[in-house]
């Protein structure tokens, strides 16, 4: 006959186990979602002015060099 044996574990051990199992996958998906959101929002002036221009390597690409006389608003 089979015998049921319960192993007690602390909440910390359960958290460590879950993080070890899902952490890398969630990190990769989060990085991908953040990159996609940044790519899709890169055309908005707020994201371009407040975030993309301040990046060290890509900032010059997103700078607005249009003269003030050529801007419609």
UniProtKB/TrEMBL annotation:
UniProtKB keywords: Membrane, Transmembrane, Transmembrane helix
Annotated GO biological process: mitochondrial electron transport, ubiquinol to cytochrome c
Membrane-spanning intervals of the chain: 26-47
Pfam families per the UniProt record, alphabetical: QCR10
GO cellular component term of the entry, any: mitochondrion
Xref: PANTHER family: CYTOCHROME B-C1 COMPLEX SUBUNIT 10 (PTHR28254), CYTOCHROME B-C1 COMPLEX SUBUNIT 10, MITOCHONDRIAL (PTHR28254:SF1)
Name of the protein in question: Uncharacterized protein
UniProt organism field: Rickenella mellea
Origin organism lineage: Eukaryota, Fungi, Dikarya, Basidiomycota, Agaricomycotina
